[in-house]
Amino acid sequence: MDERRLDLNDKPRKQGPVLYWMSREQRAFDNWGLLAAAAEAREMRAPLYVVFALAPSFLGATWRQYDFLLRGLRETERQLRDRRIPLLIRTGEPPDSVGALARELSAGSVFTDFDPLRPKTAWRKALAASLPVRLTEVDGHNIVPCRVASQKREYAARTLRPKLHSLLPERLTDIPALDTHPFPPDDFPAPQDFDALERRITADPSVSPVREFPPGYSAGMERLRTFLEEKLDRYPEDRNDPCRDALSGLSPYLHFGQISAQRVAFEASRTVSPGAGAFLEELIVRRELADNFCLHAPSYDTPDAWPDWGRKTLERHSGDHREYIYPKETLEAAETHDPLWNAAQREMTERGKMHGWLRMYWVKKLLEWTETPEEALALAIAMNDRYELDGRDPNGYAGIAWGLAGLHDRPWGERPVFGLVRTMTFDGAKRKFDLRRYLESASRNKRSK
Ligand SMILES: Cc1cc2nc3c(=O)[nH]c(=O)nc-3n(C[C@H](O)[C@H](O)[C@H](O)COP(=O)(O)OP(=O)(O)OC[C@H]3O[C@@H](n4cnc5c(N)ncnc54)[C@H](O)[C@@H]3O)c2cc1C
Question: Which CATH superfamily is domain 299-447 in?
């Protein structure tokens, strides 16, 4: 557990209630940060409080994402209350609202989650400076804690993989249960009024919640169970075929921390299946590589973070003729000449999650259909973060940089516009899966909306 922790200031730990600022890991169970805070509170014989700081806006999140988050927190609140731990929600700028609550409670120490994204890092830094007591960050997201796996930016899965694999055996374990807290507050707060809170959210309501992904811990764990029983065996052969429904669909739950990646990996590793290896490669190596990227390349959402060879080759091809150029409105409305891209785009805008293989195709077409790679990048991030339930995630920033500029990839044969960056084509898609079947099912989904 100690290796997951990093003290963010050198202020003292004092006697008093312990406050856990839940941020990236929005769950009661399998949560290392919460377990660390609970252990400290038991040692201090003091109450444990959990706070979630709801920012008025966050990286363009819409009602779709706020709804998923808040409905997940409703369940988390009940589960914590059952264990005599109150969950409080505070609105406003997170470092201010968490700092104010810590002072109000006379908290003796504060714990929070590791997250490599810039705004979250800035929040933690501001809170660490303003608190009179210790602020400790805990990595509850990565199975091998990100700062332990590697102290530098890794350039490909092949450089991180052996490090992770050598560190995994002691870490890919079960996670202790969260016990009922023995020292609850005497004046246990009334349950959070989520309905009132929701009425105050001002996020863009035009991007609506989606039916296919009911939020929360229980729904996420149920999805995991179904995936392991019904799909894991066929994951290696079928995962790149959008007609075959072989993916786990867990990314929204993992993104909001409603379930733990370590729990998912532990259960998958105990399942005797020919698919376990391929699934764990994505869930552990690819996912943890994305956190490594965002931690060590803080400009992860700009071309500055692209590999040198990718940036240079795109520059050399910046004057190449582009057959189609589309404005944002046409792209957003899925009205290009390419029916596959349009169907993928609608999967994202209407259903909140695009298939993994299509995401690669989708982003590469943006490079072909915009004036510059910078424009493609800005559009890809804006649409991914606006519509995907799992958007605003290191996986997204890494995936987009992979598609546009060869991050974590290698140079391929030289092509117009792409230079040495790997291309993907409509004809290639036709060879890979039954395109007609996919388009038919996409148009059925559209009609049934
Ligand atoms: C352009 C582009 C944008 C992307 N945007 C996002 C995003 O916003 N959020 C997001 O979580 N993922 C993103 N990805 C990565 C990947 O496509 C999704 O994680 C995956 O499709 C999620 O669906 P799933 O949970 O059913 O995947 P599964 O195949 O069932 O995988 C299980 C888990 O492994 C992890 N994983 C799988 N593939 C990758 C990958 N290539 N890189 C990192 N982790 C991976 C995810 O946590 C995923 O939930 C993006 C990829 C690309 C190319």
Answer: DNA Cyclobutane Dipyrimidine Photolyase, subunit A, domain 3 (1.10.579.10)
Domain 141-175+214-297 has CATH 1.25.40.80: yes
- Please report the pLDDT score of residue 57 as a whole number: 79
Going from the Cα of 370 to the center of ligand 1, the distance in angstroms, rounded, reads: 24
Q: How confident is the model at residue 442 (pLDDT cuts 50, 70, 90)?
A: confident
Q: Write down the residue that tokens 């505070």 correspond to.
A: 90
Q: Which CATH fold topology does 2-140 show?
A: Rossmann fold (3.40.50)
CA of 285 to the centre of ligand 1 (A): 12
Closest CA to 262 of 194, 342, 171, 327: 171
Closest CA to 51 of 14, 87, 18: 87
pLDDT tens profile 226-274: 999 999 999 999 999 999 999 999 999 999 999 999 999 999 999 999 9
Mutate to test the pocket of ligand 1, among 395, 397, 402, 422 (most ligand atoms within 8 A of CB): 395
pLDDT value at position 448?
61
Query: In sequence order, what are the residues at sequence separation of 6 or more whose Cβ sits closer than 8 angstroms to the Cβ of residue 349?
Result: 207, 332, 334, 383, 387
Give the whole-number percent of the chain exceeding pLDDT 70.
99
* Ligand 1 atom closest to residue 239's alpha carbon, by position in its atom list: 29
**Ligand 1 first shell, C-beta below 6 A:** 239, 247-251, 254-255, 282-283, 286-287, 290, 356, 359-360, 363, 384, 388, 390-391, 393, 395-396, 399-400, 402-403
356 alpha carbon – ligand 1 mean position (Å): 6
355 CA → ligand 1 middle, Å: 9
Domain boundaries, the chain: 2-140, 141-175+214-297, 299-447
- Ligand 1, atom 2, residue with closest C-alpha: 399
Residue 8's alpha-carbon distances to 38, 94, 107, 110, in angstroms, are 19, 16, 16, 10
Quickly list H helices, 231-327.
Answer: 235-238, 251-255, 261-269, 276-280, 287-296, 308-316
Hunting for tokens 């109000």 — which residue is that? 104
With the most atoms of ligand 1 within 8 angstroms of its CB, the residue from 251, 254, 284, 351 to mutate is 251
